[in-house]
Design brief:
Elements: H1 21-30, H2 36-57, E1 63-64, H3 72-79, H4 96-104, E2 106-107, E3 123-124, E4 129-131, E5 138-140, E6 143-144, H5 156-166, E7 172-176, H6 178-184, E8 186-187, H7 198-214, E9 219-223, H8 233-249, E10 254-258, H9 268-272, E11 278-282, H10 290-296, E12 302-308, H11 318-332, E13 337-341, H12 360-364, H13 369-383, H14 391-406, H15 413-420, H16 433-444, H17 461-471, H18 477-498, H19 515-518, E14 522-525, E15 532-535, E16 538-540, E17 544-550, H20 557-564, E18 573-576, H21 578-583, E19 586-587, H22 593-614, E20 618-622, H23 637-652, E21 660-665, H24 674-680, E22 684-687, H25 698-703, E23 708-711, H26 724-735, H27 756-776
Parallel strand pairs: 1-7, 6-8, 7-9, 9-10, 10-11, 11-12, 12-13, 17-19, 18-20, 20-21, 21-22, 22-23
Antiparallel strand pairs: 2-3, 4-5, 14-17, 15-16
Helix pairs in contact: 1-2, 7-8, 11-13, 17-18, 22-23, 23-24, 26-27
């Protein structure tokens, strides 16, 4: 009997490099320390290393065009010439300068393209940014209009296919599917449907795919994750027209239609009728869909089975997967099955072997990108009949699964007892907001349009250097604490000098808004090199939530006390909320997420009570990631929102009426969940609205949201410094939607990633904008 390993596809890999080489190359280029050629050379080296790594590990279907200097959706906008007029581009290849202007904004040019001064407000803003489906990866939102034209303006997919081929790698190019691309975009005209542009867009895709086929590509991967969402008739019709045309125009090229982040569900009939050669399905997030697909799949359709979790770090139980998959392979035949991760491995760190300090038990339960490819290769060999050749790997996998399930490091009886003792009284404030607002107005006596920031201030090179020195033992605890106190004191004095009404301490002691708390809570583990991309050159190291959660001691109390001692003005205490800690961590998969979230909520509740007892009058509990955890199917929203809101209320409802609870949310569409936001019952919510020109406030307006809101008046994800007039314009738009007593004035988000040279003038302008409007009100 001949043994044939099943094909192993990876769908996509992390781009940054094992040591974040792409981050440093990008930031050197943006700072003017290196040139375009040097940046492109570094990028080419990372692509070559990724291809070599996959081949050496045994992957047989290797992607190209999964690499990006910033974001794959932005790459697609540039590829098809969807470049807004703001960026002064008319035709021809899109330059790197224009590409990064779309991503980050551009300082020093007026909107009509004339030369301007590199000072406050001049320049083009970045495109809007939002979350990629329900992940913590951000994409740049395409902008469309009814007269939109498309043309091939970047040959990146073709160039990178040829680049790989020249190095000896026969790859499967990856592109964002045309229907998903249009559905991800937006228009200034809310009545305009981007799908109406499909017939104009498809010729560009046809040209790209035809040239790829001519150059020797046999397959292409078209990612259509919109297929796991609720689709209307127009969207399904768009899919039918798209794939009918592409299959007709390029008959020699096989399309692997790729879905992920959920089950295809009621879109299955549409999908299985499309003239594509292959279909990738997510059997992690959509674990129950395999049988329905096997029963109805056309006889010639190749199925790519996404069986290894591409979004989480837990090791697979390979024996259990083999038992599940063997019948499918027997039914389809080995020539019709590929083994793959559930989605691109972009969402997990690169290599577990870099982690030399992890607890050995916890490490044995994990798998990063490299290890997941090894798991897939083992599965492919076993499903091809080579059980003997992978016997040891299967035994190690099964032993790790048993050890994790029985480990005493996972479960805490005290946490279980406390969870069982929760009651409804822990979830309610003493009085409704209208009553609380009266008490708080009397307590704080703030002016109309009170000004504040979201929490963090720039983490300068000096701050990062001091933290690194303290971590490696070359800076003593006492000297590090003194350094942090001096940074905090300078920030407090400066806030007073420019006239901010409500202050923050700057969070200089915090490495990350989630990691900082996870390091002080039981049940979390941390990596040194477990970076994943959030957006652009912004990478995060998500904590690994492996066991039951509790708070051994106060986490923020001493720093809040010190900061408040420096000023008479209100000093917000800054916490990260339970839903955000959950959604920005790699979460254990042995209990429901709702249970893990409530455990975190109890830990944060303890911190809130300690802060209030110490005299904190304003406590901000950030839920930046609340919406990104929203399921992709509306039928599942209520369940998620119920436990997410419940978790927030568990940690925030324990304070008196005079204590003001703030929260913050990152880029989100709020229209469909505004009632859940209201149910959180925070006294003040701050949200990111500058890139949307306050459109996100429309949801709160139509809902008649009663509590107070701080809509962001400048975009902190761009280095631009907006003028006072620009911010006044945004505040004026906000005033058209909400009453003056409701409005707070603040940036879009925390300022950790920006430089003081940008932050200082921007906040000065923000305070000036509030004061000028205050004088006129």
């Amino acid at each position: 009997m001949s043994l044939v390993s099943l094909p192993v596809a990876t769908l996509g890999l992390p781009r940054m490099g094992p040591r974040r080489e792409l981050k440093f190359a990008l930031e050197s280029y943006w700072a003017g320390k290196s040139n375009e050629d040097q940046l492109l050379e570094a990028a080419a080296g990372l692509r070559a290393a990724n291809w070599a790594r996959q081949k050496s590990l045994g992957a047989t279907i290797i992607p190209s065009n999964d690499f990006s200097l910033y974001d794959q959706v932005l790459d697609t906008s540039v590829m098809v010439g969807a470049v807004p007029d703001t960026y002064d581009w008319t035709a021809g290849p899109v330059s790197l300068k224009t590409y990064f202007a779309m991503a980050r904004g551009e300082q020093g040019k007026c909107h009509d393209g004339r030369s301007g001064h590199a000072q406050q407000g001049a320049g083009a803003p970045a495109q809007e940014m939002t979350k990629w489906f329900d992940t913590n990866y951000h994409y740049m939102v395409p902008e469309f209009h009814k007269d939109q034209t498309f043309r091939l303006s970047s040959r990146k997919p073709i160039d990178e296919y040829q680049e790989a081929k020249s190095l000896g790698y026969h790859t499967r190019p990856v592109l964002v599917g045309p229907v998903t691309f249009l559905k991800l975009g937006k228009s200034a005209d809310p009545a305009f449907n981007p799908l109406s542009l499909l017939d104009r867009l498809l010729p560009v895709y046809t040209d790209i795919l035809r040239e790829l086929s001519t150059l020797g590509a046999e397959w292409v991967q078209l990612d259509e994750p919109c297929l796991v969402q609720d689709l209307d008739h127009a969207s399904r019709d768009a899919l039918r027209r798209t794939y009918a045309r592409l299959s007709k125009d390029i008959p020699a090229l096989k399309i692997m239609l790729t879905t992920y982040f959920g089950a295809i569900g009621d879109n299955l009939e549409t999908v299985l009728a499309l003239p594509v050669a292959g279909l990738h399905v997510d059997l992690v997030c959509g674990s129950d869909q395999l049988n329905a697909i096997l029963m109805r799949a056309p006889k010639e359709l190749v199925l790519s089975l996404g069986v290894v979790d591409g979004r989480n770090v837990w090791r697979s139980n390979l024996s259990a997967l083999l038992e599940r998959l063997a019948p499918a392979v027997a039914k389809l035949g080995s020539d019709r099955v590929q083994i793959a991760p559930s989605c691109s491995l972009l969402h997990v760190p690169i290599d577990l072997e870099l982690e030399t300090d992890l607890d050995s038990d916890v490490k044995s339960w994990l798998a990063f990108s490299v290890q997941k490819i090894k798991e897939l290769v083992t599965l492919g060999r076993a499903l091809g009949g080579d059980y003997a050749g992978v016997h040891d790997a299967l035994a190690v996998s099964e032993a790790a699964a048993v050890a994790r399930e029985t480990s005493p490091k996972i479960h805490n009886a005290d946490v279980a007892r406390r969870m069982a003792a929760m009651d409804d009284g822990m979830r309610r404030r003493n009085n409704a907001f209208t009553k609380r607002a009266e008490v708080q107005r009397a307590r704080f006596a703030l002016p109309v349009f009170p000004t504040t920031t979201i929490g963090s201030f720039p983490q300068t090179a000096e701050v990062r250097s001091a933290r690194a020195a303290h971590t490696n033992g070359t800076l003593s605890d006492a000297k590090y604490e003194q350094f942090l106190k001096e940074e905090t004191a300078r920030a407090v004095r400066w806030q007073e000098d420019i006239g901010l009404d409500v202050l923050v301490h700057g969070e200089f002691e915090r490495n990350d808004m989630v990691q900082y708390f996870g390091e002080q809570i039981s049940g979390f583990a941390f990596t040194k090199h477990g970076w994943v991309q959030s957006y652009g050159s912004r990478y995060v190291r998500p904590p690994i939530l492996f066991g039951d959660v509790s708070r051994p001691r106060p986490m923020t109390l001493d720093w809040w006390r010190y900061a408040q001692s420096l000023t008479e003005r209100p000093m917000k205490a800054m916490l990260t909320g339970p839903v955000t800690i959950l959604n920005w961590s790699f979460v254990r998969n042995d209990i429901p997420r709702s249970e893990a979230c409530r455990q975190i909520a109890l830990a944060i509740r303890d911190e809130v009570l300690d802060l209030e007892k110490a005299g904190a009058t304003m406590i901000q509990i950030d839920e930046a990631a609340l919406r990104e955890g929203l399921p992709l199917r509306k039928s599942q929203w209520k369940t998620y929102l119920d436990w997410a809101v419940d978790s927030f209320r568990i940690c925030s409802s324990c304070v008196g009426d005079a204590t003001q609870i703030h929260t913050h949310m990152c880029y989100s569409e709020f229209n469909d969940i505004v009632d859940a936001i209201a149910a959180m019952d925070a006294d003040v919510i701050s949200i990111e609205t500058s890139r949307s020109k306050m459109e996100l406030l429309d949801a709160f307006t139509s809902y008649k949201y009663p509590n107070q809101i701080g809509p962001g008046v400048y975009d902190i994800h761009s280095p631009r410094v907006p003028e006072t007039a620009e911010m006044k314009g945004l505040i004026t738009l906000a005033r058209q939607r909400l009453s003056d007593p409701q409005l707070w004035i603040n940036p879009d988000c925390g300022l950790k990633t920006r430089r003081w040279e940008e932050v200082r003038p921007a906040l000065v302008n923000m305070v000036a904008a509030a004061r000028e409007l205050r004088a006129l009100s």
